[in-house]
Amino acid sequence: MKLFRHETRQASEESRRLYALFELFHTLADFGAATLFIMGSIMFFSEQWVTFGTWLFLIGSFLFALKPSLRLWCEIRLYRMHNYDELADRGQE
C-alpha cells in the first residue's frame, strides 16, 4: 500500500474517521492562517500596530507550515494502519 492513495483513506471505518479528523485540522489551520494574515495586513496600516501585525504574520506562517506536516502525518498513520503484515515482519527482524 502506498502513501497518498485514495484507497488508503477509504479502507476502513477507522481510516475514514482518521482522515476526516485530519482534514478538519487542515481546514482549521487554513482558516487560522488566513485570519491572522488578514489581521496582520490591516494592522500594517497603523504604525502603532506594525509589530503586532508582524507577529500575526509569523504565527500565520507557522500555521501554513503545519498543513503539509498534518497531511504527511495523516498519510503515514493511514499507511501503518493497513500494513499490519509488513509491520509485523519488521518487528521480527
Could you explain the architecture of this structure?
With 93 residues, the chain is mostly helical. The protein has one domain. The chain has helices at residues 6-9, 13-43, 50-81, 84-92. It is rod-shaped, with a radius of gyration of 19 Å.
Key attributes of the depicted protein:
single chain, 93 residues, mainly alpha, 0% strand, rod-shaped
Question: How would you summarize this macromolecular structure in one to three sentences?
Answer:
With 93 residues, the protein is mainly α. The protein has 4 helices and no strands. α2 (13-43) packs antiparallel against α3 (50-81).
Give a topology summary:
Elements: H1 6-9, H2 13-43, H3 50-81, H4 84-92
Question: Strand content of the residues, in percent?
Answer: under 5%
Helix content: over 70%
CA radius of gyration is: 19 Å
- Secondary-structure element sequence? HHHH
User: Can you count the beta strands?
Assistant: 0
Distance between the termini: 21 Å
The helix/strand class is mainly alpha
Tell the overall outline.
rod-shaped
- Uncertain segments: none
| Main beta-sheet annotation | none
Instruction: Kindly give the count of domains.
Output: 1
Number of helices: 4
- Average pLDDT, all residues: 81
